[in-house]
Write a structure and sequence with these properties.
The protein is α+β, with helices and mostly antiparallel strands and about 130 residues long. The protein has a single domain, classed as Alpha-Beta Plaits (2-Layer Sandwich), CATH 3.30.70. About 35% of the residues lie in helices and about 30% in strands. The chain has three helices and six strands. The strands form two sheets. A four-stranded antiparallel sheet has the order 2-5-1-6, covered by helices on one side. It has a two-stranded antiparallel sheet with strand order 3-4. β3 and β4 form a beta hairpin. The mean pLDDT is about 85.
Length: about 130
């Protein structure tokens, strides 16, 4: 099994009719069903929505506001899953409710070997300090 990350971009409700409490509730139920299905299949690892405000930090420690909610490319949340292949991960992503509101799911494989190497290096650094 490999780890994959779904990054959710866009998919915001754009007018009052779409954004009514009833429509939002119906949409959230679809997300809950999709996540429950992944959980039943034992492929769901974790996931959370993200606040629509934050900060960018660039080289030299320059801090600026962003992302902005009106930006279509704003990352709205993530889900991590464990499946065998990229093809399997993209098949799972096809059922995401975000497409109802023109959202996009970016599917990325997690480099577990690199993560483990970094963790080991940090542990060694902390042991020396």
């Amino acid at each position: 099994m490999a780890g994959f990350l779904f990054l959710f971009r866009g998919g915001l409700m754009h007018n009052e009719e779409e954004g009514s409490p009833e429509a939002m509730q119906q949409h959230m139920v679809k997300w809950q069903h999709w996540i429950a299905d992944m959980t039943r299949k034992e492929i769901y690892v974790a996931g959370e929505p993200l606040h629509d405000t934050g900060k960018f930090v660039s080289s030299g420690g320059v801090v600026s506001d962003g992302p902005f909610p009106e930006a279509k490319e704003m990352v709205a949340g993530y889900i991590a899953i464990n499946v065998a292949t990229m093809d399997e991960a993209t098949e799972v992503a096809k059922d995401c409710p975000i497409y109802e509101y023109d959202g996009v799911v970016e599917v990325r494989e997690i480099l577990a070997e690199t993560s483990e190497a970094v963790e080991q290096a940090v542990e060694q650094e902390l042991a020396v300090s």
